[in-house]
Each structure stands twice: as structure tokens, then as C-alpha cells.
Amino acid sequence: MAKIFCVANQKGGVGKTTTTVNLAAALSSIGQRVLMVDLDPQGNATMGSGIDKREMKLSVYDVLLESATIAEAAAWSESCRYHVLGANRELAGAEVELVDLERREKRLKQALSSVLDQYDFILIDCPPSLSMLTLNGLCSAHGVIVPMQCEYFALEGLTDLVNTIKQVHANLNPDLQIIGLLRVMFDPRITLQLQVSDQLKAHFGDKVFDAVIPRNVRLAEAPSYGLPGVVFDPAAKGSQAFVSFATEMVQRIQKM
Ligand code: ATP
Ligand code: MG
Question: How many Å lie between the centroid of ligand 1 and the Cα of residue 224?
């Protein structure tokens, strides 16, 4: 049975999409069956997994509006070796269209329930907001992976997300928990980053993943080739860090 994880942080540009596609590719490289769900109308995770968002006939939009199943809408990425339930601009309209529908925040959960036995991991890339789309992700998930940069105000920025997760846990999805905080774009030469990293560990303890993703130009270059860094340059430091993270995730789900 698949474990489902949202990669979420309402802050923009913190590394959610990079984390989602690289973790998906790294998990696949160590033998896990993976479905990656793009819940962001920007469609970056779709493009970054080698699927052209402009040429998709069916997407997560059709799944949320129940005009297609996941089996129909998901595409296999041959280069990345995982399935992609993609997104494009059409998804921005779902926000409004869902408002009047019943079970609007549980549409994705419902759809995923029919494919759970086909995967080990389902990873959901969330948009930088706490919107109805993100809510669909949080309602579906067993856990939230929170990528964060070790910057000043990093902890303050987490408060809204932690409160939202608490509310969803209490009202909509009793399974939901923060599985962990992932330090990304980390540069150990910057003293402040080391300090914030220590603060995170003091505050959140073992909720902070052991794996640390360094700032690495290969990870930033890979999307322009339509690939995760892990596939584009497996030997890069950033790619290797994602493989360590994937191994850690496999160990964590055994304890869940
Ligand atoms: P958004 O909120 O817009 O969805 P995001 O949280 O998904 O953004 P990304 O798109 O993953 O963030 O990353 C933002 C930028 O930082 C991208 O240009 C990406 O290539 C770059 N980036 C992410 N992680 C790293 C890293 N470890 N090293 C270097 N660059 C990185
Ligand atoms: Mg993104």
C-alpha cells in the first residue's frame, strides 16, 4: 500500500518542486514504485519530469473534476521511471470550479484510493499557497515533507503551515502529520545557516531529516533539460543527497 506525502510550504521558491521530482527519481532508482502528482498550475514538476504540460490530454484537473481516473490521466516518464499525474494552467480554474462541489477537499484522496496498491510512494508537489489545491493534497496524505532554507525567519514562516496542518489533522484527515523538515539549498559555509539548522533541530528534534540537500548548480540546471538532477547528473553532490534522503524515507515509512 502506497504511503502518500505532500511536499508543502506556503513560501514560494523554497525548493518544493526540486524536492518532489528528485525524491521521486531517487526513490525509483532504489526500486520503489512512485507516482508523482503535480498540484501546481505552474506545472513545473510535470515539465521537470520530462512530460510536456502543453501536450497533455488529461491532467490532475480532470481527476479533481472526476472526468478522468488516475489510470487514464497519469503518464509514464521513461527518462525518470515514475508515473506523473501532471498539471498545467487549466488547474488554476479548478480552484473556483471546486468551490460549489461536494467533497471538494477530498477529491484527490478519493481518486488516489484506487491506485494505492500500485505504488510504494505517492508524492504530491503543492503550490506555494494554502489553497483548495493544497488542501486536497493535505487531505490525501499520510505525511507532509517541508523543504526549508535555513534562513532568518525560517521558524516564523512555519507557523502558518503548522497551524493549517493541525486544523486539517483535527477536522479532515486524522492521519496527517509532519513527517519531517528537509534542509535544502544548504550552504555550510554560511554561519547563519548552521545556526538556524541547530535551532531547527532544537525545536523539532527528530522531525528534522538527517539528509541535507546542498545548494548545487546541477540541481538548478536539470529542469531546463526536463529532468530531475538525480537523472540529469547522478554523480552530483545534490543528486547523491537526494538518494540519501530517499533511503531515509524508505526507513521512516517502515516505522509509520
Ligand atoms: P514555487 O513556490 O514557485 O513552486 P518551489 O518551492 O517549488 O517554488 P523550486 O522551483 O524547487 O521551488 O526551486 C526554486 C529555485 O531554486 C529553482 O530555480 C531551483 O532550480 C532552485 N533550487 C532548488 N533547490 C536547489 C538546490 N539545492 N541548489 C541550487 N538551486 C536549487
Ligand atoms: Mg514549485
Answer: 12
